[in-house]
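Recall that a protein's primary structure is simply its ordered list of amino acids. Everything else, from secondary elements to tertiary packing, is in principle encoded there. The following example makes that idea concrete.
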Amino acid sequence: MLREQQVEARRVIEAARSALASDGDLLDAGERRRVDAAIDALERAAAGEQAEAIVAAGVALGEATEELAMRRMNRSIRSALAGRGVDEILATQAAAQASKSAA
């Protein structure tokens, strides 16, 4: 159990760092400090021998990155919809539904 938690912690840390590298500009300085502190806490916990501490630090990092995840999703949606009219978006959705029905 401990080793699995340590491996998962490393995966989550890497994902958080990747998100910060690509979209860290979406956070203000205080939000960024909270995320960085949560990453540091998870790193410390993963270096230890207590699976429960790793889980708790992982949950804290998840909570610290919720706002970033939401803002990244919003940015992605805005980017996907940029320059497209409502009729085009609705036509794309209708075509997708039609292909699902045909499958």
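The chain has a mean pLDDT of 92. The chain has five helices and no strands.
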